[in-house]
Design brief:
Elements (H helix, E strand, L loop, with lengths): L9 H9 L1 H28 L2 E2 L2 E2 L5 H10 L12 H4 L1 E6 L2 E6 L2 H12 L14 H21 L2
Antiparallel strand pairs: 1-2, 3-4
Helix pairs in contact: 2-6
Length: 152
């Protein structure tokens, strides 16, 4: 699963040409802030029972019975023990941001939920909506511009 974003901003382009030595550090700081914001956005939305395209599909009646028996919440938030969400990791490498799972088991579990593999219904959560993408770009832009302005 990849998340790719582009930034077309005249003010940022001007600063890139004006301060080439500071760009690399500023980009890394801005990407770090943007990926942290993306991770928080995905986790918050998922905890509220919403995926990329709206509310998650309900749990099966058998699974709902099991949850009730254990005294757990029946809200569809993809949270059972918390392992999958806590395994989410942010990484900035070569001016690219990545949000991934640091264990292959939790990554596979996330893919099963996201794509609906096997008997599991499709519950896309590991992505951002267009409005969230604009917010992420804005977080990046603000942090990048502030970094470059601060280091003049």
């Amino acid at each position: 699963m990849n998340l790719v974003m582009t930034l077309d901003d005249n003010e940022v382009q001007k600063l890139l040409k004006q301060y080439p030595k500071r760009v690399k550090k500023g980009a890394k700081a801005a990407l770090s802030r943007a990926v942290a914001f993306t991770e928080a956005t995905i986790k918050d939305r998922t905890a509220k029972g919403r995926g990329v395209f709206g509310p998650f599909e309900r749990y099966s009646t058998g699974y709902l019975k099991s949850l009730r028996k254990k005294g757990k919440s029946t809200r569809v938030d993809l949270f059972d023990k918390g392992h999958m969400m806590s395994a989410m990791m942010k990484k900035v490498k070569n001016e690219k941001l990545a949000l991934l799972f640091f264990t292959s088991f939790e990554g596979k579990k996330a893919m099963i939920h996201h794509y609906g593999i096997g008997h599991m219904p499709k519950r896309p959560f590991f992505d951002v909506t267009r409005s969230e993408e604009k917010k992420v770009a804005n977080v990046f832009r603000k942090r990048f511009i502030n970094y470059l302005k601060r280091s003049r």
